Amino acid sequence: MFWFLSLIIIALIVALLMRTHNPSTIALKKTPTIKPVKHTPIKRTPQPSNTITNFKEGVSAAPKEETFHPYKRINTLMSPAERSFYGILQKVVMEEKYTIFSKVRIADVLTPESTPDKSKWQRAFNSISAKHFDFVICDREELTIVCAIELNDKSHNRKNRKKRDEFVREICKNAALPFVEFQVKHSYTMSKVHEKLAGILVHQ
Prior knowledge:
Layout: H1 2-20, E1 52-54, E2 59-61, H2 80-94, E3 98-105, H3 118-129, E4 132-139, E5 145-152, H4 159-174, E6 179-183, H5 190-202
Parallel strand pairs: 5-6
Antiparallel strand pairs: 1-2, 3-4, 4-5
Helix pairs in contact: 2-5
């Protein structure tokens, strides 16, 4: 009887040991789920291109506003000397088929010859773009250019003005444009002005 009970006890112990070492009976530990972290985008406020940032202090200066500069109207188109000469010039061409324009840009009367060298052409154009003729006489009907007129006052005695005048004479000669110069005077006689322009007006 004793040995029978011993066998039962041994069988139970073996069964318990086998159950303990069986991998199927071991509970698997669950791997914790890692939740993705949501990244909140940083909103950046764009700065104007003309905003000045002080990187040392971390302070942005307000952009400078462009202010409108006021202008004033010039009451007369011509100087007193030009107006006096214009009156005489009108009488000279009154009975002819011509009309007079004042303060005409040279670049509207002459233009540089075409050239493959664009930079050379541009330099030539820039040399006349800011200069003007005091008067330009044109055909009344067709507005074709007849001649250009310059009034020379005391300012033309300056070195830079002499250089400018010589340049204008040269380009007019090169372009076959009659260019007539008059000295500024307190008064003009119609006969003297007509005499100086007669050769040009007759041959048009």
